[in-house]
Amino acid sequence: MSAGSHKTYRIPIGPVHVGLKEPVTTWLDVDGERIVKATVRPGSIHRGIEWMARERNPIQVIYLAERICGICSFTHIVAFLRAVEDAAKIEVPIRAQYIRSLVLELERVHSHILWAGVACYTFGYDSAFNLGMLLREKVMDVLEALTGNRVNYGVGTVGGVRRDLTPRAAKAVREMIEFYRREFQTFLDVVTEDPIAKARMRNVGVLSQEDAVKYCALGPTARGSGLRVDLRHSSPYEAYGDLGVTPLVPQDYNGEVFGDVYDRFFVRVMEVIQSLELLEKIVDGIPEGPITWEPKLPKVLSALKAADGIGWGIIEGPRGDDTHVVKLTKGEENVTWWKVRAPTYANAVSWPLMFKDQEIADAPLIINSIDPCISCMERILVSDARAGRSEILTRARLVERCREKTRRLMGA
After folding, report:
1. What's the DSSP call for residue 218?
2. Residue 392: its pLDDT value, please?
3. Quick check: is 19 in a domain?
4. Up-side HSE of residue 10: CA atoms within 13 Å toward CB?
5. If DSSP codes are grouped into helix, strand and coil, which group holds residue 385?
6. Three-state DSSP class for 90?
7. Helix (H) or strand (E) holding 310
8. Which domain holds residue 56?
9. CATH number, domain at 59?
């Protein structure tokens, strides 16, 4: 392709690429080393989880929700459970809310440390990557001590949690907090004070505050652009109303905001420190009481079968707002329908803006800077089994089909 006297070339990155931690294809139009346009095409790992849920009851769907993402699995569980509890009008005991918040913050710590290490690996800082992975082991050990698993914890259930916070687990959390207060600052200093590391991230993948609002950025991606958005602060859930969460933005620390990869890095590592404070408050302030609304599973299933309505659950995951909507129909054991909107679905829209006028060598770092989870975001599958029939769906027709389906499901 040519543009004036310049010639541009289109090159693909992904879906399998050594610099990417998620399978996504990005077509870059480049003029020399400069990116002039980017087209992002996901679609490699749709798994039909929402469809599978229609053959299962809400308790069984928990284990599907947990496997939407391996890094923020408990985030999806809590969002799904809150949607089911909203539809069935189930009250969660206070102690269970604190335990849910505890696991959510532990998951945030391990997710952010993992992302920070991978970011360092992406621009060639292998020693910082190795340090990050070593530090992450501590929180993974605590999650294993608390839930029995390092991934997919199996601790959440409708109306509460399946495991209590024992004195031994509480001690492990406190020891982890002290460990990170001693050791994590080293990782922060190693990266933020290294001039080469800072040069690789500063003014790379810029997303202005205005564009972050316009393109509906969420979570650390939005906060990295200076937006004070955090559902734990604006719409507290579980125990967060007692914890006093404040959204972290770069201008509070550095006096200004660039909205670049460095700011998104900085926000995440500072949120690790914030999560340590929240974890300490949770362990010190957790009240006594039951951990489930109803310990007998048959009674829970009976209550869910009698429920009728639509429930909504939204929480602040490590990547941003995670939204689940569930429809339960009275007399039916299985979920009628279930919709998931993960934060990557919103944040990926900003990728073409971040690519504009950047160097091609920075493309993997820009892609990774929103901490994408493609398996979280891929929720659409078009299938027509009629032999010999093919159709090209325009955007307008696809939107209309979505609206038709919604009206049908709502019974309108």
Report:
1. -
2. 65
3. no
4. 10
5. coil
6. coil
7. strand 309-316
8. 49-343
9. 1.10.645.10
